[in-house]
Write a structure and sequence with these properties.
The complex is a heterodimer of chains A (about 110) and B (about 375). Chain A is α/β, with parallel strands linked by helices and about 110 residues long. Chain A has four helices and five strands; from the N terminus they run ββαβαβαβα. The relative contact order of chain A is 0.18. In chain B, α3 runs antiparallel to α4. The chains are: A alpha/beta (about 110), B alpha+beta (about 375).
């Protein structure tokens, strides 16, 4: 698994590639650790995710809670079919903001932030 | 023993905090050590051996002559573990024989330290394995029952963690003569997940005695009881509860984000989806699925470890195959159905390692006379 992180004004954009599972959580936790008053909003690009397990879901939930603590938002962008299936199967798709692209996610955040 | 030097062998085992890595640091420490050993209180050090040759002097600006020293680093598993010193030759400088002798001593120390490390490591590993075995036995013993027969249902369950202990759990409980089947998956694997699993199981068992066979109410109560723990640990839990209501002839199902429940009857399989997201995210909804539960109807609760198991080519077992395997096994006893499903997963996996914990519960409605 690889996680690419870009920081923008008040926004973290993280792209997750490969198997998003328990073995990659150390990398993903870098995203969670970055969330702060200065960087309260997060976009997670899931377009290149091949698989997600419960550890990945709990990582997303931790990010959600962290953004809420800092009065920010998290949006899941362009979820791959593998990511979409697990999110819908667990009904976590009802909890996160969703967008078809990173750009659409940026728009969503700017409208709600 | 050389006849022109006193052998002063000092092997200081350098523990993690003080392990010296670079040659300069080794040489400086060795020179300071040698200086303490010599009558003159000064040393010029030539560090020889597998690390290469470094010359350093201690202290930097002596006001008297130098007392020579010869030192060698002993190395274990690629790390410097000590320094062996020859100092203060009786007559003249050091010879090749001294250097050869020092090398032998350093190599002996290396093998002793290496052997000691290995024995300690083996002992530690054996203890960890034993602890894991006992933890696995305890985790299985926490389950109330893995077989249960009530007036209206027969049930069986099984659990196969990927490690000795894991984050999946199941239980078969009875309330007023009716079956309550529970299955859950704590995020993560191994010992960390198993700690939360134990807390979750005892919470469920306690709440069933208070609330009874009401799945949605049970979910809410468990969610409330576990909220703080899940928040502090950053974990989520998927939890499905199925309760037989024999008076109404139905089975009630509430599920917080858990893998779909399958209900088989009359040759078809109904897929029952979760009623709310996993616990540890938002409070669960009060929804319940209510399905007819006629004689012969068979219910499967399974963890995602069954469908996510990949074969050696990376192809997962999948929900469709699980549903088909379940449908083919319906009609057998619940314990046999569980065994067949777990065997099907193992066959699919082949030589691929077990990816995740596996748990399965099956119960069937008994004919009413």
């Amino acid at each position: 698994m690889r996680v690419h992180i870009n920081q923008e004004p008040r926004l973290i954009v993280a792209t997750v590639e490969g198997r998003f599972d328990v073995h990659g959580m150390d990398q993903f936790n870098q995203v969670v650790d970055l969330v702060s008053d200065e960087l309260p909003n997060v976009i997670i690009d899931l377009s290149a995710v091949e698989f997600m397990d419960s550890s990945a879901l709990s990582g997303l939930v931790r990010t959600l809670k962290r953004t809420m603590m800092h009065h920010g938002w998290i949006v899941l962008a362009n979820a791959s079919s593998a990511a979409r299936i697990i999110l819908e199967l667990t009904r976590l798709d009802e909890v996160f903001g969703r967008a078809e692209s990173v750009e659409a996610a940026r728009t969503l955040i700017s409208q709600t932030a | 023993m050389t006849d022109n030097a006193r052998l002063i062998a000092v092997a200081d085992l350098l523990v993690d905090e003080e392990r010296l890595i670079d040659l300069d640091a080794i040489a400086n420490a060795a020179a300071a050590q040698a200086a303490r050993l010599t009558r003159a209180g000064h040393a010029r050090v030539s560090l020889v051996g597998p690390s290469g040759a470094v010359v350093t002097e201690y202290p930097a600006n002596p006001d008297r002559g130098w007392a020579p020293a010869l030192l060698e680093a002993s190395v274990s598993a690629g790390e410097t573990t000590g320094i062996v010193s020859l100092a203060d030759p009786v007559d003249g400088g050091f010879t090749d024989l001294d250097a050869w002798l020092l090398d032998i001593v350093a190599r002996r120390i290396e093998s002793q330290v290496g052997g000691l490390d290995l024995r300690q490591s083996e002992k530690h590993t054996t203890q960890l394995m034993r602890d894991a075995e006992v933890a696995g036995e305890l985790q299985r013993a926490l389950v109330t029952a893995d077989r249960r027969e009530t007036v209206t249902a027969t049930a069986a369950g099984d659990l196969r963690p990927a490690c000795q202990v894991g984050g999946d759990l199941f239980d078969l409980l009875e309330v007023d003569g009716d079956l309550v089947a529970v299955i859950a998956d704590v995020s993560g694997k191994g010992a960390p997940a198993s700690l939360l699993t134990a807390a979750l199981l005892s919470t469920v068992q306690a709440q069933v005695t208070v609330i009874g066979a009401r799945p949605a109410a049970l979910l809410a109560a468990v969610s409330s009881a576990m909220e703080g723990m899940l928040h502090r640990t950053g974990r989520i839990v998927t939890l499905a509860i199925a309760a037989v209501d024999s008076r109404a002839g139905v089975v009630r199902i509430a599920s917080a984000g858990h893998h779909p429940v399958f209900v088989a009857f009359g040759g078809s399989v109904t897929v029952v989806r979760p009623t709310c997201p996993p616990l540890g995210v938002v409070p669960p909804s009060a929804d319940e699925h209510v399905l007819d539960f006629p004689a012969g109807a068979t219910v499967l609760l399974a963890s995602d470890g069954l469908v996510d198991q990949c074969d050696p080519w990376g192809i997962p077992f999948g929900m469709r195959q699980l549903a088909d395997s379940f449908a083919m096994a319906v009609g057998d006893a619940p314990s046999a159905i569980v065994a067949q499903l777990l065997k099907a997963i193992r066959t699919h996996a082949g030589v691929a390692p077990q990816d995740d914990d596996r748990a399965a519960v099956v119960f069937v409605s008994r004919s009413q006379s």
